[in-house]
Every structure is written in structure tokens, then in C-alpha cells.
Amino acid sequence: AQSVSQHNHHVILSEAASLELGCNYSYGGTVNLFWYVQYPGQHLQLLLKYFSGDPLVKGIKGFEAEFIKSKFSFNLRKPSVQWSDTAEYFCAVNRNYGGSQGNLIFGKGTKLSVKP
Amino acid sequence: EAQVTQNPRYLITVTGKKLTVTCSQNMNHEYMSWYRQDPGLGLRQIYYSMNVEVTDKGDVPEGYKVSRKEKRNFPLILESPSPNQTSLYFCASSWSGGNKNIQYFGAGTRLSVL
């Protein structure tokens, strides 16, 4: 079965530190890849997405992610985190059935705590 | 404003008392879905719907029902709630194909079953 693995359950960083959150998926076909963010007490919001083209995608608030097909990975990065980035981050994948959407499969999430 | 609206936001109920959580979207999306979020388990899909009158089970459908009589609405029904259904529930919607399949999420419904 298709699955999404996020390597870290909880990451604690100081402000200005660099961030990399790992995400690997198991499906070998054409996929669409997403990172969602959930700030405390709020719903999920799209951070960035990859459908095709340049494997380095830029999202909101200075986040970026790189799709490495050979590694089945889509890691999230930010050069310098802020206290306001404290949130839970979810990687998600769906299979692209020739343009039609498959179901979105989520990782278990990584909680990021940024110390001021 | 484009949005997915869930009601209620918070609900406390007792075992066995039927309840419905409503979900409505104003974006004319074909695809709608229900997830539950539990600590350490991420989001797991309960049911989804590709269009009106087309629904299918997700990963954790037991104990839930859905219906899709109109495009904009996708209610989640718990016929006989049990304590293991205490969770945070999210409804989401999207267009069904191509580059438009970004899912938009509702604000969530926190359910406690005593």
C-alpha cells in the first residue's frame, strides 16, 4: 500500500537555525506532492506543492522543498526559522492517474517548536 | 470568499447518540473528503466523494456514513458514536483533475464521545 514517512516526530530549533524535514513516499508512479502546515488550533493550509517541472519548489513564508525522484523524497527546508514557524507540518502524496486525482495520503506529521 | 465550512466546531456527546457533522464548500468542487486527525497518527481518510452520489471508503470508514446528494454538501454521520471516535475531524474539497487538485480544508470539528 502507498505510504508516506516523515522521519522526525518532533523537532526543536532555536530562531535563525536552518530547518530540514524529511519526507519519503512509497509509490513509484507519477505523483503529486504537498506540504501542509497546521498552526496551533488551526486547520491545515497548503505550504507548497509539486506537480511537475522544476523539482525545487518554493512556497509561502520562505519555505522550499526539493523533489528527488530517485530517492522518493520531498524534503522541506527553510534557511532560517522564526518563532512563528512553530506548527505541525504534514507531507502528503497523491497519485496522478493521467490527470485525475487519487486520494491524498498524509504522513504522520512533524511538530516543529522554535525557541525564541 | 472561497471556503470549506464545518459545523459544529466543537461537540460533546454520549455513546450511541446519533450525530451529524456538516460540511459545505462554495467553490463548486467535485471532490470532497473527510479525515480524522489523532496524535501520532496524522490525518487518516474516512470517506471521500468524487462527485454527487459517488462516495467511497477511505482508510478508516468503520462507524461512519456519508452522503453526497448535492455538490456543495458532504455530511459525516455517526449512527452510534463510540469513545474511540473522539477525534479532530476535517472536511476537505478540491477539483477532481489536473493541476487543480489542491485540497482546501475546513476549520475542523473537535468531537468528544463520552
C-alpha Rg of chain A, in Å? Answer: 14 Å
Unreliable runs of chain B, pLDDT <50, ≥5 residues? none
Q: Give the terminus-to-terminus CA distance of chain B.
A: 36 Å
Order of helices and strands of chain B: EEEEEEEEEEE
Oligomer: heterodimer
Structural class of chain B: mainly beta
Give the overall average pLDDT of chain B: 92
β content of chain B, as a range? over 45%
Give an account of the 3D structure.
The complex is a heterodimer of chains A (116) and B (114). Chain A has strands at 4-6, 10-14, 19-21, 23-25, 31-38, 45-50, 56-58, 64-68, 73-78, 87-97, 100-101, 105-106, 110-115. Chain A is 0% helix and 54% strand. In chain A, 35% of the residues are buried. Chain A has no helices and 13 strands. Chain A is globular, with a radius of gyration of 14 Å. In chain A, the strands form three sheets. In chain A, strands 2, 5, 6, 10, 11, 12 and 13 form a seven-stranded mixed β-sheet that branches. A four-stranded antiparallel β-sheet of chain A has the order 3-9-8-7, with no helix packed on it. In chain A, strands 1-4 form a two-stranded antiparallel sheet. Chain B is mainly β and 114 residues long. Helix content of chain B is 0%, strand content 50%. Chain B contains no helices and eleven strands. In chain B, the strands form two sheets. In chain B, strands 2, 4, 5, 6, 9, 10 and 11 form a seven-stranded mixed β-sheet that branches. In chain B, strands 1-3-8-7 form a four-stranded antiparallel β-sheet, with no helix packed on it. In chain B, a hairpin with a 2-residue loop joins strand 5 and strand 6. Chain B is globular and about 35 Å long. The model of chain B has no long low-confidence stretch (mean pLDDT 92). The chains are: A mainly beta (116), B mainly beta (114). The interface between A and B is medium-sized, with 24 and 26 residues.
